[in-house]
Amino acid sequence: MSPIVRPSADTDIPAIAAIYAHAVLTGTASFELEPPAQDEMARRRTSLLEGGYPYLVAERDGEVLGYAYAGAYRTRPAYRSTVEDSIYVAPSAQGQGIGRLLLEALIKECEALDFRLMVAVIGDEESKGSISLHRSLGFEPVGILKGIGYKHGRWLSTVLMQRPLGRGPSEPPTRPILS
């Protein structure tokens, strides 16, 4: 059976927390050093959903294979049309196109919500898979923050990429300013 992408549900939190915990402990996609508990992951998800942002999961046969969400790139009102994407795939599902499915769906959701720009903040210049995935879906590199974080015994850089969404920044935003 092919994987499907759908809106996340409360019942997905244990799987989401496990996927994220593995990424925190073994990878550089997140600069967190300790995995958050399930209740914190649930709080973060609720906060994003209440803010009007999409939060998706990919599943096959009832198993969550990965998740993706968009959130505010920055909190100041002028940034309200720009989102930052986050994508995490279970170790057992990596290399199977799950990240692509999630990012494609996330882009569509964000365009439907009239966001105009998506930013990828990719942890580590060595994250070739993530950089390649973003590039293949229309993201362009816009900068590298060298040695900005220290994790796993080494200094890490952050790769910044961006992609216009929908009408892009061609006209004034329609998204309301949230307080």
Low-confidence stretches: none
In what range is the share of β-strand residues? 25-35%
Q: How does the overall form come out from the CA principal axes?
A: globular
> How many beta-strand runs?
7
Can you count the helices?
A: 4
Using the coordinates shown, work out and report the CATH topology.
Aminopeptidase
Q: Using only CA atoms, what is the Rg?
A: 16 Å
User: Roughly how many Å apart are the termini?
Assistant: 43 Å
Strand order of the largest sheet: 1-2-3-4-5-7-6
Average residue pLDDT: 95
Q: Note the run of SSEs as H and E.
A: EHHEEEHEHEE
The class by helix and strand makeup works out as alpha+beta
Most strands sheet: 7 strands, mixed
- Tell me the domain tally: 1
Helix content range: 25-40%
What does this structure look like?
With 179 residues, this protein is of the alpha+beta class. The protein has one domain: 3-Layer(aba) Sandwich (Aminopeptidase), CATH 3.40.630.30. The chain is 28% helix and 32% strand. The protein has 4 helices and 7 strands, in the order E-H-H-E-E-E-H-E-H-E-E. A 7-stranded mixed beta sheet has the order 1-2-3-4-5-7-6. Helix 1 (13-26) crosses helix 2 (38-50). It is globular, with a radius of gyration of 16 Å. The chain starts with a strand and ends in a 15-residue tail after the last strand. The mean pLDDT is 95.
